[in-house]
Fold these 2 entries.
Entry 1:
Amino acid sequence: MCYAIPGRIISIKGRVATIDYFGEKRTASVIGDLKARAGDYVYAQGGIIIDKINQDEALAILGTWKERFFELKKKDMDTLTRGRAEGEIASVLEKAENGGFLSRSEMETILKTQDSGLETLFGTANHIRSSELGNSCCVHGILEFSNYCKNECAYCGINKNNTKIKRYRMTIDEIVERVGYAVEELGFKALVLQSGEDDYYTDDMLIELVKRIRERYGVLLFLSIGERSFDSYKRLYEAGAYGALLRFETSNPKLYTLMRPGKKLDDRIGLIKKLIAHGFVVATGFIIGLPGTTEADLINDILLTKSLKPDMYSFGPLIPHPDTQIGKMKTKPVSLNLALKTIALSRFVDPKAKILVTTALETLEKQGKRKGLLAGGNSLMINLTPEQYKGKYDIYPGKTQDQLFDESNNGPLVASADQLDIKTQDTIRETLDLLYSLGRAPTDLGR
Ligand code: SAH
């Protein structure tokens, strides 16, 4: 299994290498103490060279990919359909497709689109995705290593006041072992290590963890551990964790403090900006549909994400959790169409963005992943948390639904622990089948 295609460095200027993938040229940076020179075969993720690979192995992998690479490209082209919209939305979409700058009222028109206009809206976003970035689709793995959290976020099921959930922490040995399985057995080249804000793991422990992983595996590690000091993040970067997933949650400062008691939006944004300036590969974004949010807020959320210039957009619909403050309020559920419109609008606003189709979309609807990929999305994450912990990382209900779905009757299935581990592999296979059926190559070629 392969989630990255090796490329050949054709030239290096300073720390920036130009890499060839079957004739396509992309750039990636050489970081840390990796020695790379023209002629080397390398894996790149998020614009960073994460590993070298010997020529024989690279040529063997490229041999198995060559035909498929071009077949998939053709298939992607074949899936590019567009209905024909009428009225105001038609002219807004034409402008978006021609690279025009959309006004706020045009963005609102997009978010208000209903019924027959949706097909053209999503189809146009899919066209732009294909013409700007081709058919590559990042597939990252995510490992949720602790559900302890010191925060009281009003939306999140693992908030510290939820006494109903069983808490767990993986040991450093367990995390290293699971990462090894994900990289060596399952073929992942980029992994997110996520947890609540859990001070049990000191900086030194996390640094040891990152070093142990990076000594053994060529993988781009993203940390998704919430707010720590910039100094802590810098040390973690030096240890080899070059990525961070840190959403700002909402661009509305008042709502932010209401949703995250004791916290300030400026602090979160300040940290995200520092991480990006330091060279971290950052994924950031927001939650769609927090209580009281308007279309104007959603547009601000998208524009703030763009202004941060992250490597990847990560946003998803609010799924109310019964054991949270929000769960106890009557919050209007977010429709799948609004989530898809947010993907499409983000694609218009930032045509070259990597836009993650989050698992929360699948919680809304089984076809959510597919529909997100056809509405402008081009990145996915697969949950690789070990079966005994999966389900306990209960930030929102129905999160592991994809692991619990029985294809034969489309109904929920009560599965035993070892069936669930098989389900992880099934999810990977289903995801690859989905990508191939849409003509997408499960690889991050970068820009
Ligand atoms: N502690 C880390 C990781 C938090 S969980 C951090 O602070 O960054 C990852 C993301 O899940 C959060 O950033 C939030 O955007 C999302 N999330 C939490 N609860 C949710 C819910 N009920 N519905 C949808 N998304 C939710």
Note: Residues 401-417 have pLDDT under 50 and may be disordered.
Entry 2:
Amino acid sequence: MATYRIRHCEQLSGEVSIHASKNAVLPILCAGLLTSEPITIEKVPLLTDVETLVDILTECGVHTSKHQDALILWSDEPRSPVSENLLSRMRASVLVMGPLLARTGYARVALPGGCAIGQRPIDLHIKGMQALGAEAQLTPGSVTLQGELKGGNVYLDFPSVGATENIILAAVLAKGTTRIENAAKEPEIVDLCAFLTEMGAKISGSGTGTILIEGQRQLHGCIYKPIPDRIEAGTILCAAAMTEGSVLLRGVRPDHMRAVLFKLVESGVKLKETGAGLRLSGKASQPIQVRTLAYPGFPTDMQAPMMALALKLRGTSVFLETIFENRFMHAREMARLGASIRIEDRIALVNGGHVLAGSTVSSTDLRGGAAMILAGLAAEGETVLKDPDGHIARGYEDLPGMLRTLGADVTMDEWDSADANG
Ligand code: EPZ
């Protein structure tokens, strides 16, 4: 689907604006299932994950229309999706479960797909719906839930982002009060709750481990602008830190990115928050230790881009991945450029500071693919990055264009998969 060509880059400098957060927008769009009044979501990023979700929502009876960069959604008679193929293309498709169940008393969804970064079960989503009174029936490849939802107490064994969102999206229309314990605290959860509150939902405690939701008979339309993408911002900062440049990010929320900013400072760069945005200057040089954790810990989605930065840091950087069991696939591709990385189970030891040489490499998953673009900037000569499954465009709106704005030489050619077969 896409081939990226990346040339060695000594310095990035200039300014870029950060797009709206993919992981905030996806659950917000699912709220189109909750009301017959139009919700208007501003500045929706141009991502293939957004396109896929809109196709799924359309199958679920959601009407959509575009007005400039806003997407307007509403649904009179929502229904369960039928195309398993569509659902299996993205993990976030499971987020139609909660709102469908709450609005219609019935939801049948295929088990979702997404990046191959781990097993990614949905048991916590299902347990949450059961705690709200739904009956669940599992068949190979799909789950059917039905029942009139009533508020209930949910304890999550792990603060799953998706399960917390799905339960909130169900509980806002359930009869009575729902309490979620050990809820996820990510900024995207807080944003979803702020948006639902605009729709008339009554929610307290978002951003803490205990969220209370008082169900409403119905919700109404609203206009909302989601938060900026902290992972896109972090990826650009890692690219900038690999060079001795000065980059200004506009429209970021540094308070959503503290763990990443601390690691960047530990690596030796300077960061300054000004009215204009967040400026990074200087060059990273010190090795770092990274342990991925649920928010406010270091985000797993930044592990791969941070590893690309570690390729430039003299000495051994250590990465411990605690969230997903298979999220080091990019390390093998980095090794093709000459990187020295040893993987032991969930730990990666990156011996940085070696000269890297451009080569042909593959994009293994969304963040791993973006990390390979960064690694290509560090490698001598040209790196050709093959992304046949279109991973990078799922979650980054024009990453090559953003890097070109900062002076990098990165291009992308799109090709049709039919071309590959002649
Ligand atoms: C969200 O995925 C993000 N996706 C992911 O972003 C992100 O990596 C992840 O949260 C962690 O921050 C979206 O927001 C659309 P989880 P999600 O449920 O909700 C286990 C990216 O690159 N688990 O918090 O699927 C699970 O297997 C992506 O943009 C269960 O065991 O993540 C994993 O080990 C990819 N049972 C851990 O919890 C469940 O029912 C965290 O998953 C659910 C999850």
Note: Residues 22-23, 26, 91-92, 115, 118-125, 158, 160-163, 299-301, 323-324, 366-367, 395 surround EPZ (CB under 6 Å).
